[in-house]
Specification:
The chain is of the alpha/beta class. The protein contains 16 helices and 13 strands. Helix 2 packs across helix 16 and helix 4 packs across helix 6.
């Protein structure tokens, strides 16, 4: 079987696909990942075969100059950006489908060129969902923006997936996701070296602080100042701080308090397992990595799915949340102190970790996808 995986040129969109792609590869299937031209070097670090699909979008197209922190919660606007990505990459993706002839397309939910090309060529496709939110605004924006592209390939509207895969534990999902196929969250960290101290308990409670890959790249001066003040406040909690951020951005933080053990890239799943608390932006990968490790969280969401992801963490009893737009350094430090000091958060996180562990592995789901492609192939042959 040939499986084409398609992704937006963003770390948080590619990374959830990698364990499933490798599971399919380990079963003997041919796997190819298609993404925007400029993102190919990053995707190649996964060890998978990568194909360029077109110019795509630049991360900064998600920025909003009017927003205090560089990006606002405007889901329709973000949906139009991902629709632009699909329009730019559709011809390249169609050409790839025509030449490589995949039996199945697997697309993360924001990437639409793959699903459109699959529907246009009669290939089944599976969607990998991310985030708790339904994000209907994305589809609304895409239906409007891609009307001419859809007509050009003989489609009236965006295709619906044959199956939706969902790595969130069922107890934390919204009603729209109740019928999604369960998939265990298996973290992929990209290129990050594990050092001895990262997997050992700290002499003091260890807190990991991260805002993911998108927010820091779009950060305004006010956000940079807020983050610096947060680090100063957290350092007063008699803790050991790990600042998980791109190495290039870490150099811009300036002098750091003595409590900071490390600032730069880290293998998040490894570091979180040795932490008492993760403070973060509410991205899917970060949220689920902490939940899978049974670690409490303080979530500072800013836009789109981050807000509902934070609500899910709070609903599970695994942590507290404070919108980044309302956060002050003192308030964030107080939340962290409260979560570390109350064992109920850790117990709740451990319960969610057990639920995640019982979900089907990527290898099991790769088998499901294999059967789906085979049945579709048999149906086409019989027609």
């Amino acid at each position: 079987m040939r499986v084409l995986f398609t992704t937006a040129p963003l770390h948080g969109h590619l990374f959830p696909l990698v364990p499933l792609a490798w599971a399919a590869r380990s079963m003997g299937h041919d796997v190819l990942v298609a993404t925007s031209d400029h993102f190919v070097p990053t995707a190649l670090q996964s060890g998978l075969a990568i194909a360029p699909a077109g110019p795509g979008i630049d991360l900064h197209e998600l920025a909003d100059p009017r927003a205090t922190h560089g990006i606002g919660d405007d889901r329709l606007a973000h949906g139009r950006v991902f629709a632009k990505l699909a329009a730019r990459n559709l011809s390249g993706t169609l050409a790839l489908v025509d030449s490589w002839q995949p039996d199945l397309v697997v697309a993360e939910r924001a990437e639409l060129a793959g699903p459109i090309a699959a529907a246009a060529r009669g290939v089944p496709y599976a969607e990998l969902s991310w985030g708790v939110a339904e994000l209907g605004e994305y589809r609304t924006a895409a239906e409007s923006s891609l009307r001419l592209c859809l007509r050009g390939v003989g489609l009236d509207r965006l295709p619906q997936p044959n199956v939706v895969l969902n790595p969130w534990p069922p107890s934390l999902r919204r009603p729209h996701a109740r019928t999604h196929l369960n998939l265990r969250h298996v973290p992929y960290n990209g290129v990050a070296r594990v050092q001895d101290w990262m997997v050992e308990p700290g002499a003091r409670p260890r807190i990991c602080f991260t805002l993911g890959t998108v927010v820091p790249q779009l950060a305004t001066r006010s956000l940079n100042g807020l983050v610096a003040e947060m680090i100063e406040q957290l350092a007063r909690l008699d803790c050991e701080l790990v600042i998980a951020i791109d190495d290039a951005l870490a150099t811009q933080l300036g002098p750091l308090p003595g409590a900071v053990r490390h600032a730069g890239r880290v293998p998040l799943s490894q570091i979180v397992a040795a932490c008492e608390l993760l403070v973060h932006h509410g991205g899917q990968g970060t949220s689920l990595t902490a939940l899978a490790a049974g670690r409490p969280q303080v979530v500072l969401p800013l836009f789109d799915d981050q807000l509902e992801n934070a609500e899910a963490v709070v609903a599970s009893g695994s942590g507290m949340a404070l919108p980044l737009a309302e956060a002050t350094p003192a308030r964030v430090a107080r939340y962290c102190s409260d979560v570390i000091g109350d064992p109920v958060f850790g117990k709740a996180a451990a319960a969610v970790a057990k639920e995640i562990a019982f979900q089907p592995s990527p290898a099991e789901i790769a088998g499901v996808l294999e059967r789906l492609a085979r049945l579709e192939r048999e149906d086409r042959a019989a027609a």
